[in-house]
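Quick sanity check, DUF825 domain-containing protein:
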Amino acid sequence: MLLGGGFVYGVKLICFKKKYLNINFIDFISIILNFIN
C-alpha cells in the first residue's frame, strides 16, 4: 500500500510538473483521502 502509494505519488508529481495541473491536483487530493481512509 505504502510503496504503491509512493509510486502513484511520483507519477502524479511528474504529471503535475508537466501539465494538467488542476486535474492532477484533484487526483492528488483523492489519493490522500483514500490513503487516510
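Posting the structure with no commentary besides this: The two ends are 12 Å apart (CA to CA).
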